[in-house]
Design a protein that fits this description.
Blueprint: H1 3-12, H2 14-27, H3 35-47, H4 52-67, H5 75-87, E1 102-107, H6 114-127, E2 132-136, H7 144-155, E3 158-160, H8 168-181, E4 186-190, H9 199-215, E5 222-228, H10 234-245, E6 250-254, H11 264-272, E7 276-280, E8 288-290, H12 293-301
Parallel strand pairs: 1-4, 1-5, 2-3, 2-4, 5-6, 6-7
Antiparallel strand pairs: 7-8
Helix pairs in contact: 1-12, 2-3, 3-4, 4-5, 4-11, 5-12, 6-7, 8-9, 10-11
EC number: 3.6.5.4
GO molecular function, one term: GTP binding
Pfam families: SRP54, SRP54_N
Length: 304
């Protein structure tokens, strides 16, 4: 019923589940709430990297749910429902435009898995029948354009590029013109893998955003930030700073299969209000899936 994502996420959450084991052991078979239990639940959610805001919210809901007699069976069932609710987004998936190209800007620091995530996203969109164009606007990092070009070749995907240190906004301009003229469904705009502390590069990101908006009405329709799941709570700092420069609409969470810090998904959604749109679950080009909150929570709680 939960399909392909569930199978992938179940395998990819092995390390995260080991950390969440303390939460599950506490909840299973438990039908009564007292302050000692709530303190222990709070401690174990912290240890699972769920984050302060989400942890306090869950604990408060359990406390209130017991008082209001909303919890009529095992507490585990109630907590699972709260976790699902924390992750659910009213508009899942990409915000496709009815006509003209849908523009997706991709941001993120070097090492986050940004280039690979772009390739995985392009592959998935092409599999869904979309005509995809890539814009290689990460012109400041050595070999970045070459890496994206290699991926484009493997995917049979068109790419707009210039040489290293070219003006990124000029590349974005040309890509928008080509996307409109050639009838592309989706334009994916790569941006420089910058640190959120590099002011001049953040300004360049803002400039690309302005150029894209000028060329295509309503664009960018999505601004997705690639966050490395292995960094856990540290990813929040990056996300907050990027959101100050451009309005992010969602997260691509990479390397989820390689971390015990998958609980950060809850912190990201609760603190930033940004949905996780896609997750990377492995090394292969096919190892990216749209995020499914129900499958994620089910996989976390499933007994081995």
């Amino acid at each position: 019923m939960l399909g392909r994502f569930f199978k992938g996420i179940k395998a990819g959450l092995t390390k995260t589940k080991s950390v969440f084991g303390g939460v599950f052991d506490l909840l299973r078979g438990k039908g009564r709430v007292d302050e000692a239990f709530l303190e222990e639940l709070e401690k174990r959610l912290y240890l699972a990297d769920v984050g302060t805001q989400a942890t306090l919210l869950i604990v408060d809901r359990v406390r209130q749910g017991f008082r209001d007699k909303e919890i009529t069976g095992e507490i585990e069932t109630f907590v699972k429902a709260q976790l699902r609710e924390l992750l659910t987004d009213p508009s899942p998936g990409l915000n496709y435009q009815a006509s003209g190209p849908t523009v997706v800007m991709i941001a993120g620091v070097n090492g986050s898995g940004k280039t690979t995530s772009i390739a995985k996203l392009a592959n998935r969109l092409q599999a869904d029948g979309k005509k995809v164009l890539l814009a290689a606007c990460d012109t400041f990092r050595a070999a970045a354009v070459e890496q994206l070009t290699v991926w484009a070749g493997r995917l049979g995907c068109d790419i707009v590029k210039q040489g290293q240190n070219a003006d990124p906004s000029a590349v974005a301009h040309d890509a928008c013109e080509k996307a409109k003229a050639r009838g592309f469904d989706v334009l994916i705009v790569d941006t420089a893998g910058r640190l959120h502390t590099q002011t001049h590069l953040m300004k360049e990101l803002e400039k690309i955003h302005r150029i894209v908006t000028r060329q295509i009405p309503g664009a960018p329709h999505e601004v997705l930030m690639v966050l490395d799941a292995t960094t856990g709570q540290n990813a929040l700092v990056q996300a907050e700073q990027f959101s100050k420069s451009v309005k992010c609409t969602g997260i691509i969470l990479s390397k989820l299969d390689g971390t015990a810090k998958g609980g950060a998904v809850f912190a990201i959604k609760q603190k930033l209000g940004l949905p996780v749109k896609f997750v990377g679950l492995g090394e292969k080009i096919e190892d990216m899936e749209p995020f499914d909150p129900d499958a994620f929570v089910t996989a976390l709680f499933e007994k081995e």
